[in-house]
Specification:
With 888 residues, the protein is of the alpha+beta class. The protein is built from 32 helices and 26 strands. Strands 10, 11, 14, 15, 16, 17, 18, 19 and 20 form a nine-stranded mixed β-sheet that branches. The chain has an eight-stranded mixed β-sheet with strand order 8-26-25-24-9-21-23-22, sandwiched between helices. Strands 1, 2, 3, 4, 5, 6 and 7 form a seven-stranded antiparallel β-sheet that branches. Helix 24 links the parallel strand 25 and strand 26.
């Protein structure tokens, strides 16, 4: 039997249009006794389990192999093999050790992230209460089949798509699916075909949403991928992840450097042969120089920098699922943020009260005020013994506000007990309750939408007694509150002296209007400051939500999101109308409302087509496709859904938008540290090349032996480079615009610095060699070796910042680097003054004068780079490069 299965790709039957009986008949189900065991077995075989496919988890073997797929690592492996072939196993071992370190760090981080995300799956609905064979039972949600009869209570997570066949004051929070922050009241009546939007199908309950009030029953109409949640999950198949900006830069860098290395080998080898040097010596020298020219520590430095950044983020309650995610945030130019639960607390709050006759904004000060009494009594929320208010979001917000403002009103429920009620429904748009006033009298309290309550009022409250209601003034007050994005509810009351008969709509007449209350899903306390810091950092924040345009606009203004065109808010209808023009419009619009998941994906793609580096934050299922397609997806771990977390690169375990700002700061610091290493290592490597290339042209013998080159490369490139990864962020890191996603790591002076400082380092080294060689110092080659090594250590201290002086920073502000520099100096001296060092490195002990000359000459580079930074700080030197505007 397969007729009950809707197709997986095409839209299924229009369940919301059919009556409950027609749905039950169509699915060959039963609305009271449920399915039989035999029917369940058959349907489970046909439909499969009620599960969404998990993202494919990489095996440990796959994680390991992925670490060796990068071009840079491949080139390094080739260099290691060549170094071993030519008889220099020391360098070969060093390269292999660094590659293995890189791979180990990457595997450890990947494995830890996968394990942590797997633990978050415990947040999914594990079970469902169904009726089978006439008995109620609790089963794993994965075992649900189409036709099952599911019982719902407040607090239940909807386990599958249901057509409701019973609903008693049932309200469902669909924020995770539709973005609507207010719970939706459910019905069982068939709806017109026009109710095509998910939020309008009030006789349906969708998988992954939450029942917040009342109880109900529904027949399963779709499971697994056939659910609306599953349909959105399949969109992830077309939203392929992209390479991060850093990955793209390093791939280009590796390809360019590999070509340069080959040319270096050929030029140095050819010049040596023309000078009559021994071919074997020149071959070893050329290969050693080629290996030295490759910054083999770069993959390790990048990985260590990112791993340290991920660890810092963990302290801020953020889980990095993909190691490059933190750096990518440092390049972000636009953050597309969901509203509900991300910028807002996903909790309704009373923000405004107005009352007649002047409709001014008021506060509650008197517990006997009729409006305060109405708020405390006409509610389905409950305050527990612990003082916590529970119930549907709007109801809980009303009760919390009045009892927090006037604690005395907590006793009103006992003082004025409820004896009857007409429940709220979307058709009626209001709720009326009857309360005992004293032994002889009763009174009625009404709340609901302004238009529905006003239609039942003849008078308005006045301190001196009721006055005739000025309907236009009341409607104007409601409209003004709605323009502020508030959900407006009106309250009214009237005496009911006898309280006779069951409460009916005939009693809902002649009420006195007490006032209006405005509610809002308020912004998180830290959201405004976080948005402001993003703007200061040149990052544009865009809100994308399925909520009402007025609400979206109000929240956007509260947190400081500014529109840059004449339209404050664009809607899903605007996106459909723009179509091909969307790429032009996205650069202007700051707030989108009433959008579908497909719209979010289009917005992200359009921004990327304009060259933006896009981050997408969200917590709902409807955010998942855009989270996957964005340059970096940031999901909420506490209030988010499994689908969103699986699609994201970064999961915020505390759901705080401000954590994103910390991630941006960390990403920029990491990128700066990688640039520092590139500046440092390219300068040192270029100096070695210039030394060997220029020496014959100035009449000097071969300055360095292959072992000298390998030693300098090992101790002055790798360890100081790794220590640079721990450099703290500069003071102005969040007051500059983002770097363009496609910007080269050589931009803004990196290659110019490497060129002139490399030439300076080579010139100083050759000058010392020339002085020692022509004045008869037998240790001239050892002096040359020492000057080159110590010059690079002075250089690494100077390049810790592109602007701040070493004195401003302080040598000990990066303790790992200070220790590495001190340790490397000691190692260099051991190569000079230990007999074993003399034999291995072919050096000789320097005299005090020779050592003093080497130390003094080495300090020239440090002083020169500090002078360069002084010129930059004072505007006398500017390295041209592509710049971006700072968004307002």
């Amino acid at each position: 039997m397969t007729s009950f299965l809707p197709p997986t790709s095409a839209p299924g039957p229009t369940w919301h249009v059919m009556s409950a009986g027609e749905v039950v008949a169509s699915l060959a189900a039963h609305d009271t006794r449920g399915l039989s065991h035999v029917e369940v077995t058959q349907r489970l075989q046909a439909a499969g389990p009620n599960l969404l496919p998990e993202a494919t988890r990489r095996s440990l073997t796959r994680m390991i192999l992925d670490q060796f797929s990068d071009l840079m690592v491949v080139v390094l492996l080739v260099a290691a093999i060549l170094a071993g072939v030519v008889g220099e196993p020391q360098d070969s071992f060093a390269i292999v050790a660094i590659i293995l370190l890189n791979a180990g760090l990457g595997v450890a981080q990947d494995f830890r992230a996968e394990q942590a995300v797997a633990s978050l799956r415990a947040l999914a609905a594990p079970a469902a209460r169904v009726v089978r064979d006439g008995a109620s039972r609790l089963i794993p949600a994965a075992e649900l089949v189409p036709g099952d009869l599911v019982m719902l209570e407040a607090g239940d997570i909807i386990p599958a798509d249901l057509r409701l066949v019973g609903a008693h004051n049932l309200r469902v929070d669909e924020a995770a699916l539709t973005g609507e922050s207010a719970a939706v009241e459910k019905t069982t009546a068939p709806l017109p075909v026009e109710a095509s939007a998910l939020g309008d199908r009030r006789n349906m309950a969708w998988k992954g949403t939450i029942a917040t009030y009342g109880r109900g029953a529904g027949v399963v109409v779709a499971t697994g991928l056939r659910t609306e949640l599953g349909r959105i999950a399949t969109l992830l198949g077309v939203a392929e992840p992209t390479f991060t900006p850093l990955q793209q830069r390093l791939k280009r860098f590796a390809a360019q450097l590999a070509g340069i290395v080959l040319m270096i080998c050929g030029v140095v080898f050819g010049i040596g042969l023309l000078r009559g040097e021994p071919p074997v010596l020149m071959f070893l020298t050329a290969v050693s120089l080629a290996v030295a020219a490759m910054p083999e520590a770069l993959p390790a430095v990048v990985t260590v920098a990112l791993a340290l950044g991920a660890r810092r983020m963990a302290r801020h309650r953020a889980l990095v699922r993909r190691l490059h995610a933190v750096e990518t945030l440092g390049s972000v130019t636009v953050i597309c943020s969901d509203k509900t639960g991300t910028l807002t607390s996903n909790r309704m709050t009373v923000t405004q009260l107005r009352r007649p006759p002047g409709w001014e904004v008021i506060g509650l000060t008197d517990p006997h005020d009729p409006l305060a009494r109405a708020l405390a009594l006409n509610t389905d929320a409950v305050r527990g013994d612990d003082g916590q208010v529970t119930g549907e979001a709007t109801e809980a917000a009303l009760l919390h506000h009045v009892t927090a403002s006037l604690p005395e009103t907590a006793a009103h429920a006992e003082r004025y007990p409820r004896v009857d009620e007409l429940p709220f429904s979307s058709e009626r748009g209001r709720m009326t309750t009857r309360h005992v006033h004293d032994a002889t009298g009763h009174f009625l309290v009404m709340k609901g939408s302004p238009e529905r309550v006003l239609s039942r009022c003849s008078h308005a409250w006045n301190p001196d007694g009721p006055v005739v209601l000025e309907r236009e003034a009341a409607e104007a007050a409601a409209a003004a509150m709605a323009r502020e994005g508030l959900r407006v509810m009106a309250f009214a009351h009237r005496d009911d002296p006898h309280g006779e008969g069951a409460l009916t709509e005939h009693h809902e007449a002649g009420f006195v209007l007490l006032g209006m209350v405005g509610l809002l899903d308020a912004p998180r306390p830290e959201a405004q400051a976080a948005v402001a810091e993003c703007h200061a950092a040149g990052i544009r924040v865009v809100m994308i939500t399925g909520d009402h345009p007025g609400t979206a606009d109000a929240v956007a203004r509260m947190v400081g999101i500014q529109a840059t065109n004449g339209h404050a808010v664009a809607t899903g209808n605007d996106l459909a109308r723009w179509d091909a023009a969307l790429e032009r419009e996205v650069d202007q619009v700051a707030v989108y409302a009433r959008v579908a998941p497909e719209h979010k994906l289009r917005i992200v793609q359009a921004l990327q087509q304009r060259g933006e580096c896009v981050a997408m934050t969200g917590d709902g299922v409807n955010d998942a496709p855009a989270l996957r397609r964005a340059d970096i997806g940031v999901a909420m771990g506490r209030g988010g859904t499994d689908v969103a977390r699986d699609a994201a690169d970064l999961v915020l375990l505390d759901d705080h938008f401000a954590t994103i700002v910390a991630a941006v700061r960390e990403g920029r610091r990491i990128y700066d540290n990688i640039r520092r290493f590139v500046r440092y290592v390219l300068t040192g490597n270029s100096a070695e090349i210039w030394i060997l290339f220029l020496a014959p042209f100035v009449g000097l013998p071969l300055p360095l032996l292959p072992i000298h080159i390998l030693w300098v490369n090992l101790v002055t490139d790798g360890l100081p480079g790794l220590a640079l990864a721990t450099e703290p962020a500069e003071r102005a890191v969040m007051s500059r615009p983002p770097r363009p996603p496609g910007e080269s790591v050589f931009a803004h002076g990196v290659w110019q610095h490497a060129l002139w400082v490399g030439l300076l380092m080579a010139g100083v080294t050759l000058a010392v060699q020339g002085w020692a060689y022509h004045t008869g110092h037998a240790h001239w080659q050892t002096m040359t070796f020492t000057v080159l090594a110590l010059s690079q250590l002075g250089h690494v201290l100077a390049v810790r910042s592109e602007r701040e002086s070493l004195v401003q920073q302080g040598i000990l502000s990066n303790r790992p680097l200070a220790l590495v520099v001190a340790g490397t100096i000691v190692l260099q001296l051991l190569t000079l003054y230990l007999p074993a060092g003399n034999r291995l490195f072919k050096t000789e002990p320097l005299t005090p004068l020779e050592l003093a000359v080497a130390l003094g000459a080495s300090g020239i580079v440090l002083v020169a780079v500090e002078l360069e930074k002084w010129l930059v700080r004072h505007g006398h030197l500017t390295y041209r490069g592509p710049l971006r505007r700072v968004h307002p």
